[in-house]
Amino acid sequence: MKFSIITLGCKVNAYESQYYAGQLEELGYEQVSPEQPCDICIINTCTVTNTAASKSRQKIHYAKRMNPNALCVVVGCFVQFANEEERKALDADLVIGAKQKNELVKLIQQALNEHEKIDVVNEVTQFKDFEAMPVHFFESMHRAFLKVQDGCNQFCSYCAIPFARGRERSLDHNQVIQIAKDLCDRGHSEIVLTGIHTGRYFDGEYHLANLLKDLLENTPEHVYYRISSIEITEVTDELIHLMQENPRMCHHLHIPIQSACNETLKRMNRPYTIEEFKEKINYIRSCIPDISISTDVIAGFVQESDEEFETTYKNLADLELSFFHVFPYSKRNGTKASTLKGEINGKIAKARVARLLELSNACREKDMQRFNPVQVLIERKQDGYYTGYTNQYHPCKILSDAPLSGRITIEWERIEEGTYYGKKDVVCD
Q1: Distance between CA atoms of residues 378 and 350, nearest Å
Q2: CA angle centred on 99, ends 95 and 102, rounded to 5°
């Protein structure tokens, strides 16, 4: 039998889709693209904004249109956040919310055998245990991802994730170590710890820094570790010390700021002030001078005045972060922010996004100039170039006729559109 997967939303969703594919392939199912004929269509949904929810609905309709006789499986945040009537309107054969996702294959087989529609969306209050979804191999990649945490307790005013994924929960640290060992045995040389709130990992006495320390001690010396994203309030002294002392910890942190203006942060229900954020960034840099720190920013949040935006712009320029992911604010019904008056005109929000992206490009160029030579993990060959990311998570392309693989050090020749370019004859090792 053949199956396809459409994935929307975050890196955690991408990880979970990889898990679904691996489980089905182990049973002999063949993955094809969503445009091809198949027997099972899986749509892994997102609900973080109204736009994301709308895209999820569109993709569900698209999958049913392309393969009207296939089993339609809808999973994830969108259906978890939707009410029963909205879920029925999708006319899917199998609907799975944020719980029992690790049973997706078993539920697919049940739906195929029973020829009846199945809905297994549970109340988020029931989500107490972490459901392990180990992925043991990432094809054609030296970098692997390991989901260690799920859920969120923060309740930012614009975000539906706590309602869609439930409260925070973490994977047992012994299971984390075993999965990491399996990934190493299969040839992966960099492991990225990921989750909805990765920095809130907690398993008994094990916080994130304890977990990373054990991972470093129990995996080969050539294997490096990276954190996908972490809140400023979660960057502990223990974690900073570990990154400072162990060269196998990649010197990059992605720390979402969302706004750099206190008034906006307060409406967002973010748990820090811009002064506290700046102070912590300066402290991290004082301990790890060669670290790069990137961020997420929301432009045009509800009631964001011109003055508030200019404050955000100025503070971001002062922080000199390595790059920004910039998003225009998009309302999500059911969140606190959706009840506030004072939505920003779309053209204004778009202009603010453009200014921040221009600033981000300048910041990345400046940050990249700090490093030469650079250490690069080669991931694939594309258009004649070997491509990968540096320790500080800047993209790199290397022109080489001879095969390149693994982690190498090069001196780059130029920076073009946020990418290092180098040649084989200047590879240092």
Answers
A1: 35
A2: 90
